Amino acid sequence: MGKEEAPPPTIIPSELSASPDSPLSSLAVQLDVDELSKAYDASHLDRVHQSWRASCYLATAQIFLTGNATMEEKLTRKHIKPRLLGSLSTRRRLSHYREEVFGRVTLWWFHNLSTCESRVYCRGHDAIASSRTPRYRLRSQSRAQTECGDDASGPKVHMGPRMLNPTRRATTVPTLPVPESAVPTLSVTEQTHYGTTGGLAFAYSHTQALIRRRGEQEDGNEPSFLFITGPGHGAPAILSELYIEGAISKFYPEYAMDKQGLNKFVKSFSWPGGFPSHVNAETPGCIHEGGELGYALAVAYGSVFDMPDLISVVVVGDGESETGPTATAWHSHKWLNPATSGAVLPVLHVNGFKISERTLPGTMDATELALLYTGYGYQVRFVEYEPEGEPTMGGNDPADIKLNRNMAVSIDWAYSEIRRIQKAARSGQPLQKPRWPLLILRSPKGESGVCLKIHETRNKLTFGFFLLYLGWTGPLTDGKGKQLLNSFASHQVPLPAAGKDDEQLDHLERWLRSYEPEKIFQPEHKLSQGTSILNQNYDSVLPKQRERRLGFVPEAYQGYKVLDLGDWKTMTYEKGAEEISCMKAIGKFLADTIKRNPRKFRIFSPDELASNKLDGVFEVTSRAFQWDPETADKENAAVMEMLSEHTLQGWLQGYTLTGRSGVFPSYEAFLGIIATMMIQYAKFTKMALETPWRGPTASLTYIETSTWTRQEHNGYSHQQVGFISSVLSLPVHLARVYLPADANTSVSVISHCLKSKNYINLIIGTKAPSPVFLTPDQAEEHCIAGASVWKSYSTDEGVNPDVVLVGIGFELTAEVIAAAARLRKDFGDSLRVRVVNVVDLLVLASVGEHPHALSEAGFNSLFPPNTPVVINWHGHPAQIASLLFNRPHSVGRTRFHINGYIEQGSTTTPYLMLKVNKCDRYTVATNALDMVALNFSKYPNHFAQLEKHERVGRVVAQVQQKIAIYASKNQEFEKYAQETQQDHPEIGATATLAEG
């Protein structure tokens, strides 16, 4: 016979392979914006632009104002908020791209009125560019320009219109440092990452306009979009857009679109009881909070799986793009079937800087960015700000208009590409490795700031502020190469004393009026009942259908679809029959769920489904990986396997928050990777439950298996129980932790979890074959109770126990049963042992601390007062101790002893893994005898009955001997394992002593 050879797996060639000699410069998509923009009605683009300016104004007003939102009155101190909690620069850039954005107060203008000598300084340094003689050319036009050096290559400074009376001639200024004492320190409040949100409202407004245009072109059938933001601290801009579209007034009637409602709305930002400084579940249209960076992209993709009519636009900041979760989430489109799912349009906003340094994308040129994202599988289109002349306040620069035109053309192109890919797939001719569109939005950061003007007259210094404008490409330095503006140095709230300082207040008023609020709002005398105070032209660039406006999309808040679940009892097993893996039992139920719920249910697994014994689902479904020809284009492909827990969690969040259901099975040790993501999601869920207009969502259900008790072959790195603590730390009404001890309780638990809503469910179970301890009816009753006495494994069905042994988790319960059997063998009826199993962990919580907590009567019925209790628990002992802490007489060696995982492990055998963590049967039996002996001597009155006193006394007399025997047995088992690499045969047989 010839030698058999396995052929290598097929790799689908990229469409780029057809033209390998193409220049790198051709990778980015080129569009003739001037030509293509002729197809638009000029008034339409102008209205988009004006709506954008209105959003800029409202965003700025939210930062500063408590009233006078229409600016009909002169701005006074009473109109200014006491605490300015937001980055004004950021908010304005959110909606407006080229605005006079204020940055950190670090540059100081020194002007001697008597000599007309002026210099710009950096606090704590000599004059900027001190090695050169500066030449200032102050012009009498609306702006004054400053140049350093004898040529035009030095930094340029532009001062705002009408802010400073310019001098009439240029002057030469000597290099003189400003004394440190002459430069006051200004307090500022930072709540927003400057510049990261610069593209949010820009993308938002153009998405709305796209929906309107496409609806008019497609017989009124407006497409459905979601808008998802990465960095969440751009709330004022998003809230402004939502107010303009009417969503705020819809969901919060107190913020009506009249003068009174407008003033309330503006005041509410970062005000107690109002809107927080970042988008959250209280924000209409929001399904991602963005407090912790890195997850928006994955959430966006999760939102469109199995939603063929939905497109999610997601803005990813260039700082956020540095995170590991985002880096992997760029691959998400490779799991997206365009025939059955929607699409995602990512907008990467590259403004170049984070809080204190440049971003990675900000240091990459267009070719490098195009190469990177083309490699990810996208078609890259750049939308770049191109300065034209000098910028002005109010957003009416030619560069702004040009950028708007470019964005309109680019987003239309992206939409057409999405529809082209979908049409091919839905007509039965799917494109291989389709390249989805990606917009890269380049804008500068820190283009303007606040400077202090120092006047010296007759040796007396006075201080005032003026606006400092910088060109997009001409940042100032401190003379030592450190960039101050157009850099991370521009990050703070401007004019922090506007409520106290008249000059700052005056500058703020000029700034606000530069948006021309008289054109944004209609005069009150022209308003009829129910008419919006906003300029009616804005409606013409919003979707006509309210449910298509981004704040009204029903999938974002009312999309929950109830699962069709089978009767779990028909998928159970006979008690005492052959051993069955709990995970195989769950897998059987999940397969039935997938079959019953096409396109409503998915499994998100980090390449571990087969390892975790859940691969029975492949009898009814397949993997969804589109770039593998074996799994591409499969109908009802419900398994999402990718070796990135972060991306899977993001997918699951987006999938769940748009109405569907899913589960996340994983190795126990590695669920901790997404612990903070889960916590952030729980915070979102908590706020959603407190928001009346939000409907329910399916619970997030985690299946934690390949647990530490059976990770003896993988070693110490695979033994980690910390995710339990993360769930226990959640708000009590959200957390649920279940530890089913056999196949029947496992099926009951998974059925219950998939029916539940608004919870974080954690199921911890074994994948190893295990005995079936309970009948289906017993399992049902046990799961309803949460904890119960297992009579079959107790002395005299557990009546009047001398000691209670508690098992929580399969292997731990098996050891408890084995310990009870050994004690029965050694002591007969002289030692009365009760075996209790806990399946719902949080029944142990103190009364009032969790909805499932046992009452004191219920708790004492399981754990009689003054009776010692030994708990064999799957997690860290401290986790149980924290639950029991407020239970009367519960904590202390005389009452409860808790065994659990104590961070001891290696590559060993299953039994020795339990032994080194002091959770094995002989350690449990030893603990029981210790506790009985201690209780006997400490509480003699408890044994007042002569019969009981004599019976327990006989047990106590043998305690030392039996403990020594148990220790010897453990040594015997350990020696056997070390010699044979296997557990002693007696270990498997011990459990049979449980009954009989």
Automatic annotation (TrEMBL):
<feature type="compositionally biased region" description="Low complexity">
    <location>
        <begin position="13"/>
        <end position="23"/>
    </location>
</feature>
<dbReference type="Pfam" id="PF09364">
    <property type="entry name" value="XFP_N"/>
</dbReference>
<keyword id="KW-0786">Thiamine pyrophosphate</keyword>
<dbReference type="InterPro" id="IPR018970">
    <property type="entry name" value="Xul5P/Fru6P_PKetolase_N"/>
</dbReference>
<dbReference type="InterPro" id="IPR029061">
    <property type="entry name" value="THDP-binding"/>
</dbReference>
<feature type="region of interest" description="Disordered">
    <location>
        <begin position="134"/>
        <end position="178"/>
    </location>
</feature>
<dbReference type="Pfam" id="PF09363">
    <property type="entry name" value="XFP_C"/>
</dbReference>
<dbReference type="InterPro" id="IPR018969">
    <property type="entry name" value="Xul5P/Fru6P_PKetolase_C"/>
</dbReference>
<dbReference type="InterPro" id="IPR009014">
    <property type="entry name" value="Transketo_C/PFOR_II"/>
</dbReference>
<dbReference type="GO" id="GO:0016832">
    <property type="term" value="F:aldehyde-lyase activity"/>
</dbReference>
<dbReference type="GO" id="GO:0005975">
    <property type="term" value="P:carbohydrate metabolic process"/>
</dbReference>
<comment type="similarity">
    <text>Belongs to the XFP family.</text>
</comment>
<dbReference type="Pfam" id="PF03894">
    <property type="entry name" value="XFP"/>
</dbReference>
<feature type="domain" description="Xylulose 5-phosphate/Fructose 6-phosphate phosphoketolase N-terminal">
    <location>
        <begin position="192"/>
        <end position="560"/>
    </location>
</feature>
<protein>
    <submittedName>
        <fullName>BQ5605_C010g05842 protein</fullName>
    </submittedName>
</protein>
<dbReference type="InterPro" id="IPR005593">
    <property type="entry name" value="Xul5P/Fru6P_PKetolase"/>
</dbReference>
<dbReference type="InterPro" id="IPR019790">
    <property type="entry name" value="Xul5P/Fru6P_PKetolase_CS"/>
</dbReference>
<feature type="region of interest" description="Disordered">
    <location>
        <begin position="1"/>
        <end position="23"/>
    </location>
</feature>
<feature type="domain" description="Xylulose 5-phosphate/Fructose 6-phosphate phosphoketolase N-terminal">
    <location>
        <begin position="43"/>
        <end position="90"/>
    </location>
</feature>
<keyword id="KW-0456">Lyase</keyword>
<dbReference type="InterPro" id="IPR019789">
    <property type="entry name" value="Xul5P/Fru6P_PKetolase_ThDP_BS"/>
</dbReference>
<feature type="domain" description="Xylulose 5-phosphate/Fructose 6-phosphate phosphoketolase C-terminal">
    <location>
        <begin position="767"/>
        <end position="988"/>
    </location>
</feature>
